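Human:
I keep going back and forth on a fold encoding question. Comparing notes only helps if you start from a blank page. Show me how you would write down a chain together with its backbone fold. Write it directly below this note and I will take it from there.

Assistant:
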Amino acid sequence: MSDVRYTSVADRAYRLLLRLYPREFRERFGGDMTDFFHDRRLAARQQGTFDVARVWASAVADVVRVSALERAGTTARRLRAVRDSRHHTLHRTPVDARDEDMMGTLMADIRYALRGMVTKPAFSGIVLATLALGIGANVAIFSVVNGVLLRPLPYPNADRIVQISHVEPYTSVSEPEFVDYRDGTKRFDRMAAFSGSAGTLTGEREPERVTIARVSDGFFSILQVPAEVGRTFVPEEDRRHGFPRRAAVLSHGLWTRRFGADKSIVGKEIRINDVSVTVVGVMPERFAFPSSDIGLWMPLRLNYDTLWTRNNHYLRLIARLEPGTSAAAAQNDLNTLAKQFVRDYPDVYGQSEPLVVSATPLPDELLGKTRPYLLALLGAVGFVLLIACVNVANLLLARGEARRKELAIRTALGASRGRLARQVLTESAAYAVVGGLLGIALAWWGQHALRAAAPASIPRVDQVTIDGSVWRFALLVT
């Protein structure tokens, strides 16, 4: 069909876009393609500007993609013609790979490989079981390593957060020590104290025992994680003479389990240890500090006018470092204060047991103890995969020796060495793909079993799952 009837700017632009195709292709199909685009554009213009833009986007994407394939095919045909003329090829056997369509050849190889797997069930079962066990074990363990070690902590700039404690025999921190540490060093942006306790949640449903974290002002601002619903505490709620009613922030788990994820719970009262508290917010699902079993957070409400004695060590501290400050420098400052405490209060601190402060970055505090064990376990299952690969390679070599006669006949019929190599590689890839899929299914079951059997000392085990990173690792292993 002639292009004269199409005089609009859009049609001329589309005909210009068609120049991406080889000339032979344009002469054969260009008129029909222009007619089709013209009709689509007119129909889309009646629907609105968005539909016109969508038609253009689709047209451009199709032209770019198909024209690249057509030009590649044209180039390949020209190179083959030059090669054939150079070698004066007058006769080629029917099974020469140079005359075969690549996609058709690939599909034929895949069908042949699958048929071979079905006709040799015992051999295929051994190979697939070996691959599935090797790949499944690696993917399952990597899902644990990824969930526990590799996935970033849900706290912005977590490397600037440090957890502060005393070494044995003191371990925890007393109230006066917390105030002195907070006010005596300029290395921290903020510092907060927290402690754990247990309580009984009562109400319309059955009583439930929950773990409570009592936190001082600044706790949530140090971690920099906002509430998913409602808000966290305001400074007045941490004062004994502040708000008349106590406040509470629920964990995501308790909110969904006990209150059915009802957002209207914010502002309502619940009863903890037979005391009414007002729910002011709900934290996100992956927020689980200081431990994963925390059910709710409540203000610590220290009485700063009459602090408890120095030898009552029950608090743990968390702080955010000032920009450019290292944990080691902050620890040195805190130890300088601790030495001053020992000199000023000799009746509290034993001279044979000095007061030593430890300021550990939060990632090391949470993950440091489990990192070497998980990495060693990942290395061990890596050797299992290596052994599986060696066993499968031996099985395939033995099968190749048994197929020597078959390959010799195909060679005599005209199959090239490259054609036979592609067939063998396709069969190996088929075993790898099927074994990988079985391995991923095994890993999915395995990671659930690992989560259920994992000791409580492993942090963030509830975040172990088969996500995009695990899928990419599975593909790499396969």
In short: Residues 138 and 381 are 6 Å apart (CA to CA). Confidence is low (pLDDT under 50) at residues 88-100. The two ends are 52 Å apart (CA to CA). The chain has three domains: 9-86, 108-152+369-477, 168-355.
